[in-house]
Amino acid sequence: MTTIQNDALTDVPGLRVGHATLTGGGRLTGTTVVLAPEGGAVTAVDVRGGGPGTRETDALDPRNLVQRIEAVVLTGGSAFGLDSASGVMAWLEEQGRGVPVGGPGQVVPVVPGACVFDLGRGGDWRARPDASTGRAAVEAAAASPVGAPVAEGGVGAGTGALVGRLRGGVGTASAVLDSGITVGALVVANAAGSAVDPATGALYGEFFAQGGPVARPAAEVHAAAGERVARALAANGPGAGPALNTTLAVVATDAELSRAQAQKVAGTAHDGIARAVRPVHLLNDGDTVFALATGDRPLDAANPLALNEILAAGADLVTRAIVRAVRSAESVHGPGGTFLSYSELYG
Questions:
Q1: What is residue 140's three-state secondary structure?
Q2: Which of 38, 60, 81, 83 is the most core-located residue (most Cβ within 10 A)?
Q3: What is the pLDDT of residues 266-300, one digit of tens each?
């Protein structure tokens, strides 16, 4: 397995990613859209968190009608932010992209989505994504070249994200497998659990994402980081903590998968979250993974275990994407509180 091009979800041919970021004026939130190639992608979902906020996920059940999805929405704003998907739906309708239900141009775009909790982190509880935010994100995706880099850290749905006591955000990664199949992942890391080993300050995910030994921060650096975080939390007060959270992920491949196979990919990818964040899938998390398959490369029909390399890669890439999200995030000092980043504390 080798990394390629941008080391991003957009290395899966045909996929585009767009962010709409809302900051200032009490806002610290946003929306991210993964736009499939025209005609859509086979899509499935697996929800493990106890407090999910989702939209149109029932349509992705392999037993149900809709076969292909044009876009997936990841958004801040908790359940309020799911309104951003209506802006994506309107844009898709204008493009004639969706489930045909009548004559020419008569389509119903099915737009699944999921949200993270970031309410009030910018200072204004009512500052949240809406339909216009979703439209801005899908337009940004559509305007980007195929294979474009993906911005990481505090952007889009990761703008107000926290992972435990530190800043979270958007992260992405990709790889080409020995078979030539490409797999990519994009996460919005916003977990109630921590990404940091409390004994050493090392990122849990790096024990799995790196091929060699993990460099642990010096003991004095780790101690100083803990003191700074404790002071920031005390100054923020009880209302600014990570009360409700969620890690979202999209795992995509150019392999030809059935919806049942895609659902298996989504389920196995949750292992990648569990390697990078502890604990996971709590009652106040809404951990959700979507899987997309564009179908450009057939699996080896003679090998009943051909899916295994995609399953393994999806989980590995989710772990690496979470590490990148945490390392890419920047500290925020605003009316909603001070939220420190791993990079500021540990370098």
A1: helix
A2: 81
A3: 999 999 999 999 999 999 899 999 999 999 999 98
